[in-house]
Specification:
mainly alpha, single chain, binds copper (I) ion, about 525 residues
Length: about 525
């Protein structure tokens, strides 16, 4: 029998303890922690798949895996990283930070919040467990293009079911975030005084509510084509396989911004803190974020330039896509202007934030290059595209998640993370990241196709370099785990204003300028 703890004796604990506490919790901090731990586990699961892919590609020929399994790995690596790692990690940040930043006691729908999280582990088991069924996991690519996805084995059904569950989780999480932000702000916290992280998540949540049902529709149409006699994507039955790409990318492009707008929010919190200046151009940051979100709905066919669309349509999607560079440029300008003549220091969160600006911007530029239809037709389905979206998702989303983790660990644990481990983590990550992914630009321009386990001899050198970089990057992430575990278990106590910067409300509101933060608060609601 367990001994009575002092907490129980004094009645501090009212709810269940141990495992039951985590299963039944409605506390936004507990749920935020569970999202973050889940995302970290999935990050390593997706990472192992990535390293297996890179091991196979270390040399020409087939050494490590069979071609069919290789395709399963590329598919599952994408699905696990997008739906299991990046998205849940940002929801974890939202759970922890949004109530604190707007002065709310918890999320608006605390019980639904618990349900949103606990849908994820079974979905992840379905997805990863599909490796074990006859035929293995789906090898249709993370985009699940028809007609291939209509013809695959039952691993595809498990992926469809997992996407349905994860989509439901995302929609509930997004509704919770929207309602919390709109209804539960403290008196005086007007919309245009909200920290940028809250703004970017509000806009992201609207994107999620708009497009997750579209993805659910797309995979449901695949499901009914597979089992219930419909022919949405079957030309012989009057359908059209290209329809799938339209529906998928109507979800898929906004999804790109779902994975990067909260990253913009995190960076917009960190840069002012370590430059010791208010964020430059707060209002323009809000409008730029909203513009990017709106434009993200009218660019989807830039993924489909090779499907035989009319030239006028290509031109529309090409120019609409290039237009997104304008609000994105506004953001990068504002971050640089915030640092301009600031008294900057480079603790780990700032290193990752500045690293984000440099390397993410490079991914932005290659995105602009891919947007140009005649160039895209050349590089479609090559490693150039793989290089581009890893610059956006790894050096963008992931580096911002690292930055935010180091920045807010003091808040979450009460302890400062080790600067020594953090700095090693940053420098190893940025060096190995570029070693892994920069050569892929050259491979793509030279014509190496993606999603193929073997390649011609002329691609051997850059592939070997990319694999060395990938393994270096992968093992560097053990430093991240070490930093988190050490910080959670103890270390230097965090001060109330952890980073001793010019910050307003506690230390979570560097933006807008601190002296505007709460002074107009009415005395009563
Ligand atoms: Cu896109």
């Amino acid at each position: 029998m367990a001994a009575v703890t002092p907490d129980q004796l004094h009645g501090h604990h009212h709810g269940p303890t141990g495992l039951m506490r985590w299963i039944t919790t409605t506390n936004h901090k507990d749920i935020g922690t569970m999202y973050l731990v889940f995302a970290l586990i999935m990050f390593f699961a997706g990472g192992v798949m990535a390293l297996t892919i890179r091991a196979e590609l270390f040399q020409p020929g087939l050494q490590v895996v069979q071609p069919e399994f290789f395709n399963q790995l590329t598919t599952m690596h994408g699905l696990v990283m997008v739906f299991g790692a990046i998205m849940p990690a940002f929801v974890g940040f939202a759970n922890w930070q949004i109530p604190l930043m707007i002065g709310a006691s918890d999320m608006a729908f605390a019980r639904m919040n618990n349900w949103s999280f606990w849908l994820l582990p079974p979905a992840a088991l379905l997805l990863v467990g599909s490796f074990l069924v006859p035929g293995g996991a789906t090898a249709a690519g993370w985009t699940l293009y028809a007609p291939l996805s209509v013809q695959m084995g039952m691993g595809m059904d498990m992926a469809i079911f997992a996407v349905h569950i994860m989509g439901a989780s995302s929609i509930m999480g997004a509704i919770n975030i929207v309602v919390t932000i709109l209804n539960m702000r403290a008196p005086g916290m007007t919309m245009m005084k909200m920290p940028l992280f809250v703004w970017t998540w509000l806009i992201t949540a609207y994107l999620l509510i708009a497009v997750m049902p579209v993805l659910a529709g797309a995979v449901t149409m695949i499901l009914t084509d597979r089992h219930f006699g419909t022919a949405f994507f079957n030309a012989a039955g009057g359908g059209d396989p290209v329809l799938f790409q339209h529906v998928f990318w109507f979800f898929g492009h906004p999804e790109v911004y779902i994975m990067i707008l909260p990253a913009f929010g995190i960076v917009s919190q960190i840069i002012p803190t370590f430059a010791r200046k208010p964020l430059f151009g707060y209002a323009s940051m809000v409008y730029a974020t909203a513009s990017i979100a709106i434009l993200s709905f009218v660019v989807w066919a830039h993924h489909m330039f090779t499907t035989g669309m009319p030239a006028a349509t290509q031109l529309f999607f090409m120019y609409a896509t290039m237009l997104i560079a304008v609000p994105t440029g506004v953001k990068v300008f504002n971050w640089v202007a915030t640092m301009w003549k600031g008294s900057m220091t480079f603790e780990t969160p700032m290193l990752f934030a500045v690293g984000f600006i440099f390397v993410f911007t490079m991914g932005g530029f290659t995105g602009l290059i891919c947007a140009i239809a005649p160039i895209d037709i050349q590089v479609q389905d090559t490693y150039y595209v793989v290089a581009h979206f890893h610059y956006v998702l790894v050096a963008g989303s992931l580096f911002a998640l690292f930055a935010g983790t180091y920045y807010w660990l003091p808040k979450w644990t009460g302890h400062m993370p080790s600067e020594k481990i953090g700095k090693w983590h940053f420098w190893c990550s940025i060096v190995f990241f570029n070693l892994a992914f920069f050569p892929m630009h050259f491979l793509g321009l030279a014509g190496m196709p993606r999603r193929i386990p073997d390649y011609g001899l002329q691609f051997a050198d850059f592939n070997a370099i990319a694999t060395i970089g990938a393994f270096g990057f992968g093992f560097s992430q053990l430093l991240f785990v070490l930093a988190i575990v050490k910080c959670a278990r103890g270390g230097e106590r965090a001060a109330a204003r952890s980073w001793e910067a010019a910050e307003g409300l506690e230390w979570t509101v560097p933006s807008p300028a601190p002296h505007h933060t709460f002074e107009e608060a009415p005395l009563v609601r």
